[in-house]
Amino acid sequence: METRQAYRQILDAVSVTPEMEQRVLAGLRNALDRKGSSTYRWQPRLAVACAALVICAAAVFPLWLESRPPVETPPVQVTWGAQQFDSIADLADSLSYPLLLPAQVPEGYQLDGIRCLQGQLAEVSWQGDEGTLIYRMAPGNEDVSGDFTAYGWEDTLNVGAYTVTCKGEDGQVFLAVWNDGTYSFSLHASAGLTAEQVMTVIESLSPAEM
């Protein structure tokens, strides 16, 4: 009883898991059951001392870890291998496929950026007073927009030979994606466009001047 009381006093001072408590109690019971041994008198005391040492170590070690200064690690940066160009001709010349670009964009938008992502994905952007237009083209049939927003509605438009998937909110198209079986295209409008404006942009696609 004295051994168990001493053990309980130790447990009251520190926090241990139920699993740890069961293991310690099992060790004490084994020590107490060995009454035939000549070392019976000192084994319970030794068991209590060992239990106290284990429990204290378990309680102190996390505190020691918390007191250590944090190890600074450099932030992980993901690069898409973007290459900037000064002109549409330079971008078109760098690609392994014929680049198609809109010849018409809504009024008020001016050419703002020309770049290639991962060596294959062409991206051209226009900046306006209300927002940005981003047009993309790449080989394949996958969605190249990079826009995974859950928009409020989705519909399709037939524009020439293209079946265009449009997504948006409140009647405005924020994203249009389509492909011709060989190449994939996307048009993102941060401020939204009407369906008619989207159709005009897509209908104006033509080979980029080299």
Describe the structure.
The protein is an alpha+beta fold. The chain has helices at residues 2-13, 18-33, 43-67, 88-94, 195-203, and strands at residues 83-84, 100-102, 110-117, 121-127, 132-139, 153-159, 162-169, 172-179, 183-193, 205-207. Strands 1-3-4-5-9-8-7-6 form an eight-stranded antiparallel sheet, covered by helices on one side. It has a two-stranded antiparallel sheet with strand order 2-10. Strand 4 (121-127) and strand 5 form a beta hairpin. Helix 1 (2-13) packs parallel to helix 3 (43-67) and helix 2 packs antiparallel against helix 3.
Essential attributes:
210 residues, two-stranded antiparallel sheet, elongated, 8-stranded antiparallel beta sheet, alpha+beta
Rounded Rg? 35 Å
State the total count of DSSP E strands.
10
Shape descriptor reads elongated
- Assembly type of the chains comes to single chain
Strand arrangement across the biggest beta sheet: 1-3-4-5-9-8-7-6
Determine the structural class based on helices, strands and strand pairing. alpha+beta
- The N- to C-terminal Cα distance equals 94 Å
Output the helix-strand order: HHHEHEEEEEEEEHE
Number of helices: 5
Percent range of helical residues: 25-40%
- The unreliable regions are 35-40, 72-79
Q: How would you state the average pLDDT, rounded?
A: 79
For the sheet with most strands, the description reads: 8 strands, antiparallel
Tell me the strand percentage band: 25-35%
